[in-house]
Amino acid sequence: MTMRLVASCVALVLVYSQAFAKQQPTDFQAVVDRAHAQFKDVKDGANADYIPILATVPSDMFGVVIVTRDGQVFSAGEMDYEFSIQSVSKPFTASLVMDQQGPAAVREKIGVEPTGLPFNSKMALELYAARSVNPLVNAGAIAAVSLVKADSEEDRWNQIHANLNAYAGRELPVLEEVYTSEYEESWSNRGIANLLYNYGRLYSDPEETLRVYTRQCSTGINTLDLGMMGATLANQGVNPVSGKRVLDAAHIPELLAIMATAGFYDESGEWMYSAGLPAKTGVGGGIVAVVPGKFAIATFSPPLNEAGNSVRGMQAIRYIAGELGVGLFGANKGE
Ligand code: GLU
After folding, report:
1. Pairing of strands 220-221, 279-281
2. Does ligand 1 lie within 6 Å of residue 86's CB atom?
3. Is 20 a domain residue?
4. How far apart are the CA of 91 and the centre of ligand 1, in A?
5. Is the pTM of this model over 0.70?
6. Any idea what the CATH number is for the domain that residue 101 is in?
7. Domains contained in the chain, number
8. Directed axis angle between helix 90-101 and helix 153-168, to 10°?
9. What pLDDT is stored for residue 317 in this prediction?
10. Which residue puts its alpha carbon closest to atom 6 of ligand 1?
């Protein structure tokens, strides 16, 4: 009798878990489809134009994807167009520094405080004793590039590129036109690099670091690549498709903490309040958000708000996080 009871309980659990396993992907696809349909016609925001070529990227392109920690993909809209990764590259290079030197080096040599100021703030350099402040604003990201252990400019770039490739699971191109367009207008970032050097908070030659940083930002990705990079973080540092470990699982909490507190620049508090997920945005129009241990949500849409964050991308990710109830502190409603 007891055996029969145990057997029927086991059968029930099996039926339930199979139903759940089947139901989950269907729900993910439906939610992604709804997010795309709901926000595709939003016209708010404008392409970044301080990097002149970014103003020429078609503004109506819009892609939304969920990539799970086991590599399942649920997508809607633009998945192929290669746009520049820009600041979404920053946590990934911070992870390389963590991997080479441990999280304490990131805290001590860069900093981990959100600035509450715009991404390219020079004032933050004067206000905060850490100067570079955190690896997700321009100053801290340029400092992170300078911290990669390298014996030449080429070696520094090759390591950063290889790290981004490993996260995406493929060889990513460099968009040379974006590189030239940004480097030619890099007066603000050059100022930041020189100021950091002056304060002893840049750890290699300023102009060399600036070139490698600009190349890093000009790396081409599509929406799916971005989802895969986030899924690697969701999967404790292992790329779900290649099976390659990119970051020690022990460093994932620190990396996601920086994304949660500083991923949206001076809108990071607003983002955590409404979406509840660690994420990173870029002025190329990409955003990646991570549901730790589960999946990533990535979006691409070029028009940005005042803070430099993709308008449709924010709306879509908030909506998906709200629908799936995956905010870190409970089910944010996405409002
Ligand atoms: N390459 C850009 C810059 O340095 C990145 C800014 C961003 O994506 O937020 O200004």
Report:
1. unpaired
2. yes
3. no
4. 13
5. yes
6. 3.40.710.10
7. 1
8. 110
9. 97
10. 87
